[in-house]
């Protein structure tokens, strides 16, 4: 029994005519008649009888009709599912992200991505950059949005999605809180809230390098992993911190963000999409394409 035979059978049943069914199916009526005869031979019963009204279902035909419709429906669904999966429009996407990606990048990209690909189930997981890279290496996520610059990894591939500059976060009571811009060396004696070298090595390295180029080694009072945590510690008056400029999107009433005059602070950091170099997860490709728009 072939699906085309069932489709032809249902079409005749719904139109009540071999002639009209042949027109709908774009085949010759004699060929349609032969197909139905083959189907009747397959099921071992007559499915139609001729009457003044046209082609009417026999009792066997009535018994087959509902199952034939269900079979065609599920066959069509299966074909649609395969095509959606093949084109990356159906499936699961396990996406990791650093907390600062929620300031701007995720709100601007995830809603339109989900609207465009409603059949892709997006599972989000927050972690540090180093934690997300390890999860990628262990195949526990499909892609990650992490802070860079990133070291080369033969197993991973990355694309810069968003560039950003460092700004200086200070408490509202800080002596420079009223300033719009500053040279980093002017805060060289302040206690610094710094990124953990274990969990956020890239940002730690860039921040320390920036301080070194400004002519001082920072006095590190506290270390943290997430940008939000650094800002919160600054709000608590524990020190100053170098944070991505996008952090200003969600202002804290106890924190002031000051632009840095240092050229090296400009475009010093980035948010990158990282995936397995040999990934076969098509939704990842669709996500990457959405960042290009």
Automatic annotation (TrEMBL):
The lineage of its organism: Bacteria, Pseudomonadati, Pseudomonadota, Betaproteobacteria, Burkholderiales. InterPro entries: LysR_HTH_N, LysR_subst-bd, WH-like_DNA-bd_sf, WH_DNA-bd_sf. Keywords: DNA-binding, Transcription, Transcription regulation. PROSITE patterns: HTH_LYSR. It holds the Pfam family LysR_substrate. This is LysR family transcriptional regulator. Residues 1-58 form the HTH lysR-type domain. Belongs to the LysR transcriptional regulatory family. It comes from Alcaligenes endophyticus. CDD domains: PBP2_LTTR_aromatics_like (cd08414).
């Amino acid at each position: 029994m072939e699906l085309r035979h069932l489709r032809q059978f249902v079409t005749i049943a719904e139109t009540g005519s071999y002639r009209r069914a042949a027109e709908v199916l774009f085949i010759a009526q004699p060929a349609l008649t032969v197909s139905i005869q083959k189907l009747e031979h397959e099921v071992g019963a007559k499915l139609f009888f001729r009457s003044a009204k046209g082609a009417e279902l026999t009792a066997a035909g009535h018994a087959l009709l509902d199952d034939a419709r269900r079979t065609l429906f599920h066959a069509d669904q299966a074909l649609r599912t395969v095509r959606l999966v093949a084109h990356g429009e159906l499936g699961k996407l396990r996406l990791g992200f650093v907390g600062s990606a929620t300031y701007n990048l995720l709100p601007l990209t995830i809603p339109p991505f989900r609207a465009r690909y409603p059949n892709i189930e997006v599972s989000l997981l927050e972690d540090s950059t180093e934690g997300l890279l390890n999860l990628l290496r262990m195949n526990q996520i499909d892609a990650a949005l992490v802070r860079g610059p990133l070291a080369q990894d033969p197993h991973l591939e990355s694309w810069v999605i968003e560039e950003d500059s460092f700004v200086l976060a200070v408490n509202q009571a800080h002596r420079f809180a009223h300033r719009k811009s500053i040279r980093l060396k002017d805060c060289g004696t302040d206690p610094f809230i710094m990124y953990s070298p274990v969990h956020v090595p890239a940002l730690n390295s860039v921040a320390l390098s920036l301080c070194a180029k400004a002519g001082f080694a920072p006095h590190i009072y506290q270390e943290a992993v997430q940008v939000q945590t650094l800002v919160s510690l600054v709000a608590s008056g524990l020190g100053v911190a170098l944070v991505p400029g996008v952090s200003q999107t969600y202002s804290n009433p106890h924190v002031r963000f000051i632009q840095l005059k240092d050229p090296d602070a400009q475009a010093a950091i980035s948010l990158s999409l990282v995936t397995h170099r040999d990934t076969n997860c098509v939704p990842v490709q669709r996500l990457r394409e959405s960042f290009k728009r």
